[in-house]
User: Which sequence fits this backbone?
């Protein structure tokens, strides 16, 4: 249930960002960073976890890795918010459908992992899908590719410190790195009036509360995901992750009334074919591994 809640919340985030109008994407991302840090500080105080997080701040390697992770996630957030507030939620959904396949490709080319034949076929099919969508759309789906690659690289970087940094500490450190830039962006937006200026204090208390809600909306799904990841098998978690782009697609097509041409449906269909193949292969490989472990003789114990 926690995994479903996490991916479900991520799936409806476009509605929250649209509700923040007339705030522009840069202002939304900036307040998202600031209020996420405030939320994490409150949470650390409630959990009495300041000591654990403070210890991580003294580890140079951890801080360097988290700085890189922060840079990648702010790119992801900015592209995503800009897409969902400008009528490109469907392209954002495609990015998260492609993300598992990009993650596999990164594993091959960066971590030198070996793929099973079905995984190679799934990656190849996804490349064909991107080409089909690009031809039908008339241009390369940069939003989708940017989201898939930035989040894939983010996961790869976080994997380097996954056993050391917990979810709350990780988000705290990332937002600490990003907050100076976020505050600077708000100052620039306020002074120059870019994108309509800073709207936080000028659109009423309901609008301000929605902006503040971006903090918990950022942190809560991450914490639910981290908790579920410790309890669920990788294959179950992998299936659940498709809930987010499915809900984004529903939001884009039926609630935001974005155009969905036949070429787009065909391209999405090819991506879904690749994901079905990947899912089936994962299940088969998992069951085969479990069977082999079950048949393996127990080691002799000598007194």
Assistant:
């Amino acid at each position: 249930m926690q995994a479903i809640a996490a991916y479900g919340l991520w799936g409806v985030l476009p509605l929250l960002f649209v509700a923040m109008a007339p705030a522009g994407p840069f202002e939304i991302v900036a307040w998202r960073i600031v209020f996420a840090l405030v939320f994490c500080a409150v949470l650390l105080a409630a959990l009495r976890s300041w000591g654990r997080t403070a210890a991580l701040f003294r580890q140079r390697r951890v801080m360097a890795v988290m700085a890189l992770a922060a840079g990648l996630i702010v790119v992801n957030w900015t592209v995503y918010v800009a897409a969902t507030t400008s009528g490109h939620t469907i392209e954002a959904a495609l990015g998260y459908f492609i993300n598992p396949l990009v993650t596999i490709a990164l594993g091959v080319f960066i971590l030198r992992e070996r793929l099973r034949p079905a995984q190679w076929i799934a990656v190849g099919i996804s490349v064909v899908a991107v080409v089909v969508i690009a031809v039908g759309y008339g241009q390369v789906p940069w939003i989708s590719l940017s989201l898939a690659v930035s989040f894939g690289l983010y996961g790869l970087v976080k994997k380097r410190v996954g056993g050391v940094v917990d979810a709350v500490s990780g988000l705290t450190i990332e937002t600490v790195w990003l907050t100076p830039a976020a505050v600077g962006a708000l100052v620039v937006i306020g002074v120059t009036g870019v994108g309509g200026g800073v709207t936080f204090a000028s659109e009423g208390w309901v609008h301000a509360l929605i902006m503040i809600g971006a903090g918990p909306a950022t942190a809560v799904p991450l914490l639910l995901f981290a908790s579920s990841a410790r309890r669920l098998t990788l294959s179950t978690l992998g299936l659940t992750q498709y809930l987010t782009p499915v809900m984004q697609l529903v939001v884009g097509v039926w609630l935001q009334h974005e155009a969905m041409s036949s070429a787009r449906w065909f391209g999405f269909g090819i991506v879904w074919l690749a994901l079905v193949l990947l899912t089936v292969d994962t299940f088969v490989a998992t069951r085969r591994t479990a069977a082999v472990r079950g048949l393996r003789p127990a080691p002799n114990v000598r007194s």
